[in-house]
Design brief:
Distance between the termini of chain A: 17 Å
Strand content of chain B: under 5%
Subcellular location (chain B): Cell membrane
Helix content of chain A: over 70%
Number of helices of chain B: 13
Oligomer: heterodimer
Structural class of chain B: mainly alpha
CATH class of the largest domain in chain B: Mainly Alpha
Family (chain B): Belongs to the binding-protein-dependent transport system permease family.
Low-confidence stretches of chain A: 13-17
CATH topology of one domain in chain A: MetI-like fold
Low-confidence stretches of chain B: none
CATH superfamily of one domain in chain A: MetI-like
Keywords (chain B): Cell membrane, Membrane, Transmembrane, Transmembrane helix, Transport
InterPro entries (chain B): MetI-like, MetI-like_sf
CATH superfamily of the largest domain in chain B: MetI-like
Strand content of chain A: under 5%
Mean pLDDT of chain A: 84
Radius of gyration of chain A: 25 Å
CATH topology of the largest domain in chain B: MetI-like fold
Order of helices and strands of chain A: HHHHHHHHHHHHHH
Shape of chain B: globular
Number of helices of chain A: 14
CATH architecture of one domain in chain A: Orthogonal Bundle
Largest interface: A-B, 104 and 103 residues
CATH class of one domain in chain A: Mainly Alpha
Number of domains of chain B: 2
Radius of gyration of chain B: 24 Å
Largest sheet of chain B: none
Structural class of chain A: mainly alpha
Number of strands of chain A: 0
Shape of chain A: globular
Mean pLDDT of chain B: 88
Organism (chain B): Sedimentibacter hydroxybenzoicus DSM 7310
Distance between the termini of chain B: 41 Å
């Protein structure tokens, strides 16, 4: 690899003379973006970190006091617990569900365009469009409740009980299955077909092939899809907000609700400490995912 | 084998129907007569369990365009919000095009000090949820006096790094020989970007734009937090106090909100798929 790099450098040099010019050109291309990213994200985030260890006005140093306040805050604990519980339930479901359909659609060998479209359509549906539909499906006098009457004998209210979180899970699965499926199909396409041919010569059946060839080869993809699914799971706030408003049923109360309410109260101390905590948690997840890929290779 | 295949198709068709059913019902409901809708949907507006249950006819009982006429002629606020959405989404996409395309090109085709560190930073930023950037956004918007203005939504969105990452993947795929040939012909670096990079990376640019459109057309978090003035609110925040008597108008508005994204989706599905794949490539 290094040899190759050296070689291509050498080739470039007679056109290029020096790499200083190359580096300067590179900087020129990214400069507008970098300036904006710095102004709108990096510098203010540094300020947030500073404010998270100071008093409201950002002058007096208070150590970790703001962090302790946030971590002891009941609403924060409720919202974190809900968010984590939601992720633990919905992400494995989504990964399995989308892998299943990815494998099936891949096995149809390109004659599956219409199915892909159907699975991807929910991605294009703005949340504001489906609020009434969701109410029709999940209200105590709605569709699923009627289904429950015919199976269990009594109606179920999904909107205003602990079951509210399942409304979010169904929304999430409905919306993201297509996205993850496309990623799985990309991963599946990367597995050389010679592996399968060799396996069937050895007499391995479909299930054996799936567990001994498909799954191990999708390992790198799994972590990427996992991360993207986590990111998309934060967006379920959109459904929660449009269905339940600022204060939905407690089982639907997510971190974003809490942040919005702190924001309305302009509670900068809590907001800053909270933002740093969320950033650290997300970064930890990303580092975990990068290491896992390298470990898996 | 043939029989097995048929079963697979039947299962797939059933699930696909399940996925598009909400859409079909919104469309069919928007053509339903209001009094029929009121009767069908009144039960889901009561807070207690009632004797009557909600119904939704897949094919309208009394098809009519009345609700469409009503929203087209009697609801100015709806159209204000529609334009508000356009005034946010198109400047954002245009800005991303101008700023992020060259940035992606710079990252993909040049070597310079700090490049890898910077790019990792871009990836981390792309993966951060809104909660972790919300306060920083607030602080800088407050400082720049951009709170409660459209620019306050537009600028942070332009510099979101996801589109850089997606376009980067496509620029990276352009063969080196093409670019070196152009250099030998004496083309300048900017000229190479415009005449080779942009045309050959066009699918990547399209992917970033399609994904961006779907994202920003339905954005909720940012306008909800930073736009206090409700006359600036985009369509994605349109939640009228729905009553059983207004369900027809609401369903028509749902259809109108949906049409732009559905059109973009159906014409750009190929690019959407490529964009999704690019978001999943490991770095």
């Amino acid at each position: 690899m290094k040899m190759l790099l050296k070689k291509s450098r050498k080739n470039q040099n007679y056109i290029y003379r020096n790499s200083k010019k190359e580096s300067l050109t590179g900087w020129m291309f990214i400069l507008p973006s970098l300036a904006g990213v710095s102004i709108f994200y990096l510098i203010p985030f540094a300020d947030v970190v500073r404010r998270s260890v100071t008093e409201g006005m950002g002058v007096r140093f208070v150590g970790l006091r703001n962090y302790i306040t946030v971590l002891e805050n009941e609403a924060f604990l409720l919202a974190s617990a809900n968010t984590i519980k939601f992720m633990l339930l919905c992400i494995p479901l989504l990964l399995i569900f989308s892998l299943l359909f990815g494998v099936i659609i891949k096995s149809l060998n390109g004659k599956a365009g219409i199915y892909k479209t159907a699975f991807l359509v929910p991605l294009a549906v703005p949340v504001a469009s489906i609020v009434l539909m969701w109410r029709f499906l999940f209200h105590e006098n709605g569709f699923f409740s009627m289904l429950a009457v015919s199976i269990l004998g009594n109606p179920i209210d999904f909107m205003n009980t602990d079951l509210a979180v399942y409304v979010l899970i169904i929304s999430y699965l409905w919306k993201n299955t297509g996205y993850d499926m496309i990623l799985w199909i990309a991963g599946l396409s990367g597995i050389p077909s010679s592996l399968y041919e060799a396996a069937s010569v050895d007499g391995a059946g479909r299930f054996k092939q799936f567990f001994y060839i498909t799954l191990p080869n999708l390992r790198g993809m799994l972590f990427i899809i996992f991360i993207l699914s986590v990111i998309n799971s934060f967006k379920v706030f959109r459904e929660a907000y449009l269905i339940g408003g600022n204060y939905p049923h407690t089982s639907m109360y997510m971190l974003q609700h809490l942040f919005n309410n702190w924001f309305v109260a302009l509670d900068i101390e809590k907001l800053c400490a909270g933002a740093v905590i969320i950033s650290i948690a997300t970064s930890a997840l990303i580092i975990f995912f990068r290491n896992s890929i390298q470990g898996g290779k | 084998m043939k029989f097995k295949n048929k079963i697979v198709h039947i299962i797939l068709i059933l699930f696909c129907l399940l996925f598009i059913l909400p859409l079909l019902m919104i469309f069919s409901g928007s053509f339903e007569n209001q009094s029929q809708l009121t009767e069908n949907l009144e039960p889901v507006f009561k807070s207690v369990n009632s004797e009557s249950k909600a119904r939704w006819y897949v094919i309208p009982m009394y098809p009519t365009l009345k609700s469409y006429v009503e929203i087209l002629f009697d609801s100015p606020e709806f159209f204000i919000m529609f334009w508000n959405s356009c005034k946010l989404v198109f400047p954002i996409l245009l800005g991303q095009l101008i700023v992020n395309t060259p940035a992606a090109w710079g990252f993909a085709r040049y070597d310079f000090k700090w490049k890898n560190t910077l790019f990792t930073l871009y990836i981390v930023l792309m993966l951060m949820p809104f909660q972790s950037t919300m306060v920083s956004n607030y602080i800088v918007l407050n400082y720049l006096k951009l709170l409660n203005t459209r620019s306050g939504i537009i600028f942070p969105a332009i510099f979101s790094t996801l589109s850089v990452f997606i376009m980067y993947r496509f620029f990276k795929g352009i063969p080196k020989t093409v670019i070196e040939a152009a250099r030998m012909d004496g083309a300048g670096e900017f000229q190479i970007f415009v005449t080779i990079g942009i045309p050959m990376g066009a699918p990547g640019i399209a992917s970033a734009m399609v994904l961006g459109f779907l994202e920003y057309w339905s954005m909720i978090e940012q306008p909800l937090a930073f736009l206090e003035d409700k006359t600036l609110w985009p369509l994605s925040l349109y939640t009228p106090d729905i009553t059983p008597e207004l369900t027809g108008v609401y369903l028509v508005s749902s259809v109108i909100i949906l049409i732009p994204t559905l059109l973009i989706f159906l014409t750009g599905q190929k690019y959407l798929e490529k964009g999704i794949q690019a978001s999943g490539l490991k770095e």
